[in-house]
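Slack export, channel: ligand-projects

TW: morning all. Re-posting the request from yesterday since it got buried. We need the structure predicted with the small molecule present, not the apo form. The ligand is coenzyme A; the SMILES is in the block with the sequence. No rush, but it would help planning for next week.
GE: picking it up
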Amino acid sequence: MTAEPLERFLNSPEQLRTPFPLPAPPASPGTGDLVLRTARETDLPELRRLDQEVFHEVAYPGFLLRQLYDMYAGHFLVLDDGRGRLRGYVLAGTTALDRDSWILGLCVTRDRRRHGLGRELMTEILGLLRRAGTERVRLTVEPANHAAILLYRSLGFRFEEPEGGLRRDYFGPGMHRHIMRLELAGGA
Ligand SMILES: CC(C)(COP(=O)(O)OP(=O)(O)OC[C@H]1O[C@@H](n2cnc3c(N)ncnc32)[C@H](O)[C@@H]1OP(=O)(O)O)[C@@H](O)C(=O)NCCC(=O)NCCS
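GE: finished. pasting the full token output, ligand included:
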């Protein structure tokens, strides 16, 4: 299923910061009621709640989420249901010098999964990064997270060598992660 009806406010840097009228809520869950937009400072409490709902013990502490927002607000996108709830987000952190970026967070709430929203968030952020001159994007993913790995592979990400991208104890004892990488330079 695709997220075709998803409203988009990401066509230009100006629009990224422009307030907009929220669409009327739909009668049933789906994707048509969601707006994809850049995060705002006032989203932080709801972002924290969402991050905890999805990531539990590995959710970002509130203070870190705040500082990530301060540093990367332009590359912090949310799915807004227009009724005070965020249904997903993606966050990319980018270095100025070597034009590297890391996807630091991606999620869609459980009730909205498999509607193309994760792909939509990733496609938008990759487009923003490409237009900003980013040359490569990396991310970490839990080896058992097949859904995310399939999504990333379908977008062109590949495991970064050595060892097939597997970094043992990457986030601490027993917290292994794959590193995946996408080259943007010269890409579509
Ligand atoms: C990973 C995640 C963001 C995907 O969001 P989503 O909106 O459900 O994904 P989409 O509907 O856009 O699916 C995109 C592709 O991902 C893959 N995928 C997603 N969910 C899948 C599942 N449950 N099983 C198998 N493949 C899956 C498929 O390849 C799918 O493409 P297809 O629909 O053409 O088959 C979502 O599952 C999530 O938030 N998970 C918990 C948080 C998380 O793991 N984040 C990533 C951390 S690295």
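GE: first-pass observations. Helices lie at 13-16, 44-55, 62-72, 117-131, 146-154. The longest helix spans residues 117-131.
TW: perfect, thank you
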